[in-house]
Amino acid sequence: MTTSAPAPEEEYSIRPAERADLLAVVRIERESFPQPWPYDAFERFLDEPGFLVAVDALGAVAGYVVADVNRQYGRNRGHVKDIAVRPERRGSGVGSALLSRIVAVLLSHGADSIKLEVRESNDAAKRLYRKFRFEPLRRVPGYYDDEDAIVMVRKLE
């Protein structure tokens, strides 16, 4: 008998981050980025609607996203500040599930567009963002200590 694997979105649940998640989030951050955010940076976003984690059936954190909405130039712009997935879970749909949920959260909090920054060399992330209709807006030289960033934007309906 052959059974099909469940869709990635069914393997993970997305929920607001809790204090108990912070060590796992910081571990993922350190595994993912050469200039990781410190623990207290994540702690400041606890209880914010834009700090979400993806957890597996055993409750282990597989990834997270941090985002907010700010008023700029008379418009409400969402900003995905940080998103990462455990290295061994990349490519399994966790990032897509997190991005899909955070777009809905930002829209529900009045955002009319969303921006994010991505390392110029991070082709996998850029592909994911394009899949979610983010378009490159501009390059920011030296945004990261060792690399330029590409600012990507998505307009919301």
UniProtKB/TrEMBL annotation:
It holds the Pfam family Acetyltransf_1. CDD domains: NAT_SF (cd04301). Keywords: Acyltransferase, Cytoplasm, Transferase. The keyword Transferase applies. GO terms for molecular function: N-acetyltransferase activity. The keyword Acyltransferase applies. InterPro entries: AcTrfase_RimI/Ard1, Acyl_CoA_acyltransferase, GNAT_dom, YpeA/RimI_acetyltransf. Belongs to the acetyltransferase family. RimI subfamily. PANTHER family: ACETYLTRANSFERASE, N-ACETYLTRANSFERASE DOMAIN-CONTAINING PROTEIN. This is Ribosomal-protein-alanine acetyltransferase.
